[in-house]
Amino acid sequence: MTLTSSADRAATVARLRRLAVDGHVSNQHVRDTATRLGVTPRTIRRWLATDPDPAQDTRRVIVDIESTTTPPNGNPDTPGRARFEITTEHLLAYADSRSAREAYRHLTRHGQIDCSFATFARALARVDPARRYGALEGFPGMARNWLYLRTTSPHRNHSLHVDHTHADVRVLPDHRARTVIRPYLTVAVDAATSLVHAFLWKTPVNADLVAAALAEVAAEHDYHGVTLGGIPEQVVFDNGAENYAAVTHASADRLGWVVSPIPPYSSWLNGKAERAIQLVNSRLSGRAPGALHVGTTQDRKRRVVANLPKDTDPSTVWTWAALNMALTEVVDEINTGIPVKELGGLTRLEAYAADPTEQRFIAPVELRAAMMPTARDTYRATKNGIHFDNGQYVATDLHVGTDYRIRHMARSRDFIEVFDLAGGHVARAWNVESIPKSERDAILAKRARDSKELNRVNESLRIARDQRARSGNAIAAAHNTPDGHDDVDSDDATAPVVPEQVIKLDRRKRRTSPAPTPGPAHALPQEILDLYRDELPD
């Protein structure tokens, strides 16, 4: 015999009554229904006789959440007596006593209920968990049990989810430090494609750091052959103070972006960032030598690092550069190596590249304003460029020996922005290891122009000096006679005197050879003539 649920039974009765003619159900319909359900036709007839017709049942009582044990007609023995339900007064007693049995005793003692405790417990169990846990825990308990519709971003750069936390590692901040620190971690996730961006900070998160991170996310840059970047339509973040809500809000306002903080105690609405930051943190600490949460020993000590930072040997943890290299590997693995089921089996980067949505990149002037200044005041350009963070940065407009101020991205070291001491922007200097071909060609073209200009200067200078020598010799010869006395004849004084040819003796062949006849003088450029006009002969 087939077991039939109450829902199937009610549906069967409703369908047969709909097929009835003048209130009578045909035997053929009854037999077919009995055969399909695996019951006898008599069972079907009994269902039709015993199950009330909702359209004709005038004794049915509908009770809302404020109903009590007493039915509307006041007679508890009538067939219309309502099932006991929990009301607001009952929840108040439950919240005050924080115990179902104590609440039942309190309500019974004051005559507010007259049912058994079993009935009261069953009614309390039927209450919506949002109402029940709201009475016990307040709004967090209610919000935790609410139903929320799933929100799906329609395209990339629609929503950017941001979250902050402590990284579960210890690191040596720089080569001068003797005490390790626990860095801070910021994660930004594209809601549509789940693409992850991660940043590490040595100091607590502030508006300047977050603004630099958001600007780097929105800046146009190449990532494994895919152009990333674009201003999001909104920035979503947790509204709790421990999640640096005010910092994130201030940084987004500084960039002029729309913010969308989630309601309090609703961290699941920022689930994209919550899951991403846990994934990055766990993978990073899983390979770091200074990991904190990898278990304890029998004597309650950390397994791979000392319990206190002051007791940690700096040689047993990563340096800041090594930790950032590991973070890059982790982010690359997440974005390019993990297929996501919700994205159709594509990786995060593949889904981002397949999205045809136009990207609105942040303007260069806005990017420069959001970039981070350095602790050091000035940097001097040398023949190798500007040395910053173990890299050499070059640009066509840099002048060797000149002091500059610079700004840099939060994490990327592909380029820096260079400013003069007055704050004026000079150029974008690129790292020599990642310089684009266009910038390399521009630097080589500038060197070629400088060399060509120098060759012209050298040639013009040689011609000018040769002309000056000939003019000086001619003037000296015109003012002196062959016997060493001045010639009073003005015509002879102005006539040029051509010196005798000098015969050079070749000692090897013991013979003389005439000196080569000087050729005509080269024509001087006009700028040289103008410069030395007073010294040249007429």
From TrEMBL:
Protein name as it appears in the record: Integrase catalytic domain-containing protein
Region entry Disordered, spans: 477-528
UniProt cross-references to Gene3D superfamilies, sorted A to Z: Ribonuclease H-like superfamily/Ribonuclease H
UniProt domain Integrase catalytic: residue ranges: 150-356
SUPFAM superfamilies xref list: Ribonuclease H-like
InterPro entries: Integrase_cat-core, RNaseH-like_sf, RNaseH_sf
